[in-house]
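Student: Hello, beginner here. Can you help me understand the protein record under this note? Any guidance would be welcome.
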Amino acid sequence: MASTTHIYSIDTECDKQFPALLQIEAVISDQQSTITLIKMAYLPSQSTILFDKIQQLCGIIFTTGNKLYGWGPLKKELSAFVKYRLFDYSRLSIPSDVQGEFKDWFDRVFPRTEDETQYTEPSGNDQDQDQDENVLTI
């Protein structure tokens, strides 16, 4: 499946600045996808066949030519995972940051009204503010 799939959605999670989880969605078609979760804390020893298989899978997924989508700076996020030797960072496909694309799409589809563009955050120093608004009445 991985060798015939060329579109992937990638997310990473860190635990206190340490890489913790790789979440990989293989987009097979408009109606089918497969999700793979790789937890760094549970990776097998690098001398095992299982590790070799995980490394082969990641090598296929992250190789140049596949389309990688992420939310934010994916290449920077993936750099933290290099030490696990799951993929060759130098052969990594250039990922697309869909966060910026989403914002552009959202602003185009849901344009702001004049009232929304004039909105400013309350300063917290509003003298007309009800002094009792933080009182809990039971």
